């Protein structure tokens, strides 16, 4: 996984593009994202983003069509799976990997008092969005 992460970052560094962009997951709240770099090679599209989640904010329920590799730059990210169970608490300096696919629906939340800042690299099929929104998990209050 680390090798893929490094390959993705190296590929992105070769083709920097600066474009601000809103986060792409509903019903996300308090989330902003800034594209730091994008690069396409063959059938793979790499996107590197800085994502900020305000205190009390969340990404909304979603999944990715490609793998996601991230590092927490600031704060603590609380991560929940589609069964509303905590599947990770990621503090500053910790890495997070979100595998691709519809079976990997999840939500990230900032349950702390300071903004969570993530540096995230998406490794996607060409034409795929960074995130695919899904309805909220039934009877779920992921806290």
From TrEMBL:
InterPro entries cross-referenced by the UniProt entry: Cupin_2 (IPR013096), RmlC-like_jellyroll (IPR014710), RmlC_Cupin_sf (IPR011051)
Keyword Iron-sulfur belongs to the record: no
Cupin type-2 domain mapped to chain residues: 51-118
Coiled-coil intervals: none
GTP-binding keyword on record: no
Highest taxon listed in the record's lineage: Bacteria
Signal peptide: 1-25
Keywords: Signal
Listed name of the protein: Cupin
Originating species: Sphaerisporangium melleum
């Amino acid at each position: 996984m680390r090798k893929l992460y490094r390959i993705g970052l190296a590929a992105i560094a070769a083709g920097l593009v600066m474009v601000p962009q809103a986060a792409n997951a509903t019903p996300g709240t308090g989330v902003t994202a800034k594209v730091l770099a994008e690069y396409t090679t063959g059938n793979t599209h790499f996107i590197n983003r800085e994502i900020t989640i305000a205190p009390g904010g969340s990404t909304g329920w979603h999944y990715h069509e490609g793998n996601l590799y991230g590092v927490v730059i600031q704060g603590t990210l609380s991560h929940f799976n589609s069964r509303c169970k905590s599947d990770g608490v990621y503090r500053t300096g910790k890495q997070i990997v979100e595998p691709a696919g519809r079976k990997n629906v999840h939500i990230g939340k900032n349950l702390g008092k300071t903004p969570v800042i993530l540096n995230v690299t998406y490794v996607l099929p060409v034409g795929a969005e960074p995130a695919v929104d899904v309805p909220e998990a039934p009877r779920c209050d992921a806290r």
